[in-house]
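Support case: user asked for a sample of complex input and structure output to validate their parser. Sending the pair below.
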Amino acid sequence: EADIYQTPRYLVIGTGKKITLECSQTMGHDKMYWYQQDPGMELHLIHYSYGVNSTEKGDLSSESTVSRIRTEHFPLTLESARPSHTSQYLCASSRFSAHTYNEQFFGPGTRLTVL
Amino acid sequence: GIQVEQSPPDLILQEGANSTLRCNFSDSVNNLQWFHQNPWGQLINLFYIPSGTKQNGRLSATTVATERYSLLYISSSQTTDSGVYFCAVTTSGTYKYIFGTGTRLKVLA
């Protein structure tokens, strides 16, 4: 079954640690996105990619970095986690088609808490 | 950039009631989606609806692109409808979605 996966689902970590949030999709989508969301609030785009070796920063400034070496994989890395990074991180993917144009699908999210 | 506003921001309903959620956008859009975020944080696709009307069970949606708004109708609401409803749009020349501020719905048994 085609889907989009995120690991870990929950992460509690101390200040200063390096972390990588994983996102993979089996939907054959070329576009992938990372959003940051505080509980119950709107989503803010922090990174996106239109294909392999293509990454761009989103509308919300973030200290995280991303890479896109394989079409299906779009990991997000924080080199030194801080309490201000505490949030939910949502990964999404999409693909242009004549029928759906660019419908986005989301993974289950990672809830990050930095102590 | 484009502004996306949703109303009402908060809504409390008794089970079985009907409701209408609104999404206004400040510029022309070429893509519009409605999502439901459940209490566990998962975003569920409800409709892809840049224009026209669609129905799926108790839910339906209408987008009037020329007047820059979209409506989501929920009929015979159930407690499982609780959560946050978001609309999201893209404008010409970009694949980036801009999300609205959300409507927080609570359905009481």
